[in-house]
Amino acid sequence: MNETPPRHATGERAVTVLMAVVPCGADTARRILADAARAAGAGLRETAEAALALGGGGKPPSALGRALADAMDEARSATEPAEQPYTRLLPDPGTIRDLLKRHRALRRRALAPPEGTAEDTAVRDELDDATYTLCVLMGRRNAHTALRSAELLVGAEWLGTTTRTGRDRNPDAPHRLRGTGARRRGVQGHDIP
Fold this sequence. Notes:
- Helices cover 61% and strands 2% of the residues.
- The protein has a two-stranded antiparallel ribbon with strand order 1-2.
- It is mainly α.
- The chain is built from eight helices and two strands.
- The chain has helices at residues 9-21, 26-40, 44-55, 62-76, 93-111, 117-138, 143-159, 166-169, and strands spanning 184-185, 191-192.
């Protein structure tokens, strides 16, 4: 019996919605709720209802809305501890692309109306796992920063900065530099080497 008691269902649903909106892990979402409630001088249940309204595209009460926005911005912009510079291997863009697809699908499911408390708990756990995995693979502690880094990595791969040339795909192919200059055409419209 892993189901959330009914009196806490609103709070746990708000945690799931915040995990999808910010994005962040479950602990950070709970901290956002507590910080917003404290800043607005409101109760946790009232703050959770405001977060649900925000996740559903509605507008929460002004004081709670500002407090929630501030707490979410704080979570997004949390700085990571200063580290010594090191050379880090980048994860495989294909793996990151698959994880991003999974993360986006889970965020959509988290923002959709729940079919039951057990499903909401399962989505929250899967989203927390995907967020944690993204943080680990990207070497980031902040989920928002990890997501942005992953999107940049996949975008860079998609734009061609890390794509393989024909020689990498086929070792017997003649070596050809890609993107080294403008193509020139001869009088009859054929490419000039």
